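Form 7-S
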Amino acid sequence: MSKPQIVIVPGAWHAPFYMATVVSNLESLGYTIHAQQMPAVGSSNPPSDLSTDVAALNSMVEKAIDAGNDVVVICHSWGGMVTGSGLMGLSKAEREQKGKKGGVIRTGYMTAFIVDIGVSMMDAAGGKPAPWFGIQVSHLFPFCLDPNVLYNDLPPAEQQKWGEKLQCHAYDTFYAKATAASWKKIPTNYLLCEDDLAIPREGQQAMIEGVKAVGADIEVTSIKVGHSPFLSKVDETVAWIVGVAGR
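Output:
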């Protein structure tokens, strides 16, 4: 049986190259990876809601499905907002009901926001920007002021290296309400990052409990790692993604 295709949705400020080593390792195991720069990241004309990013995600998923492939979507941090609001009608179960082959079989949330319809990322994060957000112009978070928040389990030189590569992010997408909750229809895995300073363990756990409260299917793996396991715990991240893919 062929392996499912994997679609990756990076978090705020991050381009896909942050996961290059993880992607390379997955490709060496025979997986086909789909990833692209999300519209909310690095844009001089930033979107005002999640719809542009949702459209980009759905387009990637449709390409991955192609003639009938199974697909797994892996999202990180803010990317969970896009994944939750996206994928409607693209699950394998929904496509089978229409006589179509393939579709999304699972989603994997890597210390990612997983919220219900009508809830924004900022709602889930406490209602106001964190002190380490750098807001310089309307609609943009041009920089994370403290890379240690994102990369606290990397050496200082590595924190600086990756921090310098961060891009601006569309401010309004942090306040945009989720328009769907695809995790209610698609089985979900969650990688709980115990030492995360950006989305503390308690915040991740609260979102997980919210998913369980509505009876959705979620499987949780907890590891001792910061906000960016794709940099600090590559092997563990690859193993988790392979587990989400199921084969």
